[in-house]
Amino acid sequence: MLLDSDAESDVAYELCQVVGRAILPYRSSDDDQHYGTAFFFQGGDDPVGESLLTAADLVGTPGGELGLRTSVTEPAGVAPAAVSEAEIVPGWARFPGDGVAVLPTAGLHRLAGDGGWRWRVQPVPAGIAAGPEVVARLGADAGSAFVLAHGVREDGSRPLEVAIERVVRDGDAVRITTELPQGYVGAPVFVVQPDSSGELSPYCLGLVLPGVGEHPVATFDRIRAVIPATPGDL
Q: Collapsing DSSP states into helix, strand and coil, what is residue 119?
């Protein structure tokens, strides 16, 4: 669905309020310095179902780190500025064929507890993860898409940003039709469609994959398929 500019601005603002604290900056190893975004996803009512998601191409090399914004931890001033991959057990499970990496968050919560702080996040809930019917309603006509990501400024800072873009579907392939700035790979992509009652609702379509000129989107049907195969840490 293609919205007018005022409606797009309203949706972007609302998404920041609802899931803004799901989004974290990620940096890969010191050698290649790839920047991206990861986000918390709550797969059900059970806290065990919580995962951190990003693009498979970003993770898996020594030296990667997850940035911690002050708004996603409490009490203030206790959590570090970043958590290295080496500190997180279990680590990322990569599914290169689907483009997705999944991190069960039990290790993140344990790490926080050991350090005397807590996570204060707003995971993307399972209820707005796009099902097959949402993907099927996309087509060759461009629709509004909203990408919440941590960009990379010239001074190295990683602010939370919203890019309002266009999304299309060609067969099974879903893509953002323009090249996104540095730091956006791995970020969640949202669209707006009518829900079962006819009201317009936001849906998390999936996450941004690497691309040149445009970006494929790993939709939630692919993400849901790999989450059950991810080693847990209960």
A: strand
Are residues 94 and 84 in contact, defined by beta-carbon separation less than 8 angstroms?
A: no
The residues, any chain, with a CB within 8 Å of residue 205's CB and separated by 6 or more, are 130, 134, 135, 145, 167, 174, 189, 190, 191, 217, 219, 220
Using a cut of 0.85, tell me whether the model's pTM lies above it: yes
Which parts of 116-154 fold into alpha helices (H)?
132-136
Give the count of alpha carbons within 13 A of 3, CB side only: 21
Q: Sign of dihedral through CA atoms 233, 16, 170, 182?
A: negative
* C-alpha to C-alpha distance for 167 and 145, rounded to whole angstroms: 6
Which has the closest alpha carbon to 71: 8, 187, 158, 147? 158
Q: How far is CA 95 from the centre of its chain?
A: 15
From first CA to last CA, the distance across the chain in angstroms is 40
Residue with tokens 């009512």: 45
SS3 content of the chain, % helix, strand, coil (to 5): 25, 35, 40
Tens-place pLDDT, residues 175-202: 999 999 999 999 999 999 988 787 889 9
Identity (one letter) of the amino acid at 75? P
Rounded to 10 degrees, what is the CA torsion of 58, 61, 63, 66? 30
